[in-house]
Amino acid sequence: MKGYSDDELGAIDVELKEAVCDALVGTLVARVSGTDARGATILGRSPRRGVMAGQLLPRFDATGEDDTSDIRIAAIGIDVVLRNGQQGKVSLTPRFSAYMRVIPVWEDLIAGGGELDFEFKLQATIQQEIDAQIRAERQPALQLVGLDRPDWRAMDEAKRSKVRAQRAEILAEVRQKAYAAHGIQLLPGDPDETPFSPALEGEVIDDPNVPDEAMPPPPPLSRLIRDGRSIPLGLVDPAPIPGKWRRLDLKLPTLEFKTGDSDDALALKLRAYNTELAASIKHQFDAWLAEGGAAEVWRDVRITPADTLSETAWTTATTALASQPVDRDRVIPDLSGVQVKIDRQRDFLDPDRVSVRVMLDNQSSELSPLEAAGRCNTVFGTSITVTLPAFCHLPLKLDRVEPSYRFRDYLEYPAIGLNCGVEAEWIDDDLALTTTSAPRFAQPRIVARRIDLPFEFALLADPAFDASRLLELPRSYSQWIDEQEQRLKTAVIEGLGLEDAAIETKRLRTDLAAQRAEAAYIKRGVELLIESQKAAEAIRNAEPDAELKSLERLAEPPRDCRRPFGLS
């Protein structure tokens, strides 16, 4: 695909480019958090393996111990500061999804063009008989052609490769014969066949490239069955249904409380809300089963190979499964431990400020491997939205070891996230704070000052260019320094004590002096260019005498500073 040229890219508005980047980041976040359309269905053993962000794992292990860590997150939250004594209504709405294990449809299976496959295996007694026959016949077959004990050390690599290929061919024939004795057809060149190593049982070989003798892995029966190979299906054990999980986006209730509620009143509302939250989740699980989920929800049964031979056979088998009763304890997640928590703490240094932490905490217990096969107590796509009156809100201001007028305007945040980021949106007279699993920092855009000067080297190198025009550069720079001095001389000490104010005032004076010195250096550099240009012009009209040599020295840039400053 042909991309844009540099000129075409330069003509695109910078905000449009930023919008495209933002859309790409948003798409990526939705993909890894499982909240996009693709995340509506996850194939595999567990949805936890298909979702990389935005999930809250069960807090407790099977023994009841808190199992959280920096990489095992069970809670997200928002830290916000409110004005003490204000009476405003705060609403809190959590958001998360659960995954329900369901039975795959034909299109999900490899035979139907999908990704899922069955792990069919031969009956244990049959596989043992085949392995015993292979072990009994492989050494005589190699002895028959004199390849049972090759002298590997006496061979070069080419000879070793040839012998290994011969041995692999013989051992493959032994394997095919052993399986054929039970009516199972294997063909030469099957990609699943792993050649034996050249070592025999009990033989020690010092070649590190030659592994010890081992039995080859059983053939992938699922693929052989799909390919129509001759296999007595009665010799194959039924296999578990491969994993498929459907996302259920839950509609959760909203908690409302007043900023002036007492601790007891808030605790009462919180207990009532968490009870309502658990009931709402259970109701939605029940509704999903009643509205068609019972027909597709997973059953802990095994599938025979005959059920996978065609779409008709699979549909018949899954229809029969749908008529079986649903074991709720095996398929319905237990999310009764998912709770909202609120902690308040008055600022000891400023009684007009109250720190509030709002959390969504998954206090469920981790499931055993057997239980996790059918349900998942993890919640996905998690977030919290807190909406409050703007007049009740105070920004969080980060502390610094020492003040800095350069950064003081970037130290305030509407709120800080716990195990997440926070996005703020002002809606009329309200402030909405929403957690995000992909926090971003809005980098202030720095726009270069536009000075009516050329910056192309071709123009600057033209002998006809008037170098005195470059004096506009230090003049504009000095004007900007003066403007900043007037703007900052009082702003840098606002809200500071006497000692910190003195430090900031001194730092500003130092910075201004350094900037003015830089402007002076630029001006002197331009003056040197002007003098050099005048000397070069005089050279063209000078006689070849001592005056010409003097002019040449003036026209030549200083040896210790061939480029006193950059014009680009």
Could you explain the architecture of this structure?
The chain has 568 residues and is of the alpha+beta class. The chain folds into three domains: 36-105 and 242-303 and 326-436, no CATH class; 121-240, no CATH class; 457-555. 36% of the residues lie in helices and 17% in strands. It is built from 13 helices and 18 strands. It has helices at residues 6-11, 14-32, 124-144, 157-180, 221-226, 263-296, 311-322, 328-331, 369-372, 457-460, 472-491, 498-539, 546-555; strands at 41-43, 75-83, 89-101, 121-122, 236-237, 239-240, 244-249, 255-258, 302-303, 338-346, 353-362, 380-389, 393-394, 396-397, 412-413, 416-418, 421-427, 430-436. Strands 1, 3, 7, 8, 12, 17 and 18 form a seven-stranded antiparallel beta sheet that branches. A hairpin with a 6-residue loop joins strand 10 (338-346) and strand 11.
